[in-house]
Amino acid sequence: MTSATLLAAASLAAEKKSADVTDWAARIGWLVGLGLFVALVYWLMREGWKWRGTLQGDVPELPTAPDDPGPAKLTMSGRYHGSTTAGQWLDRIVAHGLGTRSRVELTLTDAGLDVVRPGATDFFIPADALREALLGKGIAGKVLAEGGLLVVTWAHGDRLIDSGFRSDHAAEHAEWVETLNSMINKTEGAR
Question: Per the database record, which ranges form the PH domain (predicted)?
């Protein structure tokens, strides 16, 4: 190598600079700030949920299943997607655990509809409280394909409530709607 080449190589080596070291204090500060922001948003959402429950304090306690409801007409396992004020699919009812999504086991008997929810509050809809059953596509912020949701309208206290269920086998929905509506029509005819 010539001296000019060595001088050029030496000058290039002198110009090279190591990469900047990460400013860990600033990075940790941003992460802590982001964590606090997420915690604040979560806390505000939880407080909103509790406030909605307080506003719905006039909703009476949910009925429980009778000791002997009779033989099952239909059974279904699937998901409970929530309950809303009838006809207002975004007005979620959270009082008494009705707003909690969960797995569900439905059993229809002559006494009514037994809703068993593992990990959430079970409830019973008496036959005389049932008003209508239909196929819907959304309830309480959950939107599915057209007809993908079994919506049962029932009376509780002075409110009409829509409760949304989705079977593990969506083909069952039509049979549930037909059976529930015929049961409702017989109950209304007997009144």
Answer: 59-180
Contact predicate 83/115, CB 8 Å:
no
The pLDDT tens digits of the residues spanning 67-93 come to 888 899 999 999 999 999 888 888 888
- Tell me the CATH architecture of domain 74-190: Roll (2.30)
Domain chopping of the chain, boundaries: 74-190
CA 47 to each of CA 41, 109, 164, 190: distance values in angstroms, whole numbers, following the listed order:
10, 38, 24, 45
Asked if residues 134 and 117 have their Cβ atoms less than 8 Å apart, the reply is no
Q: Could you please report the per-residue DSSP string of the chain? A: --HHHHHHHHHHHHH--PPPPP-HHHHHHHHHHHHHHHHHHHHHHHHHHHHHHHHTTTSPPPP---S---S-SEEEEEEEEEEEETT-TT-B--GGGTT--EEEEEEEETTEEEEE-TTS--EEEEGGGEEEEEEESEETTEE-STT-EEEEEEEETTEEEEEEEEESSTTHHHHHHHHHHHHHHHHHHH-
Q: What pLDDT digit, counting tens, does each position of 8-23 carry?
A: 666 666 566 666 667 8
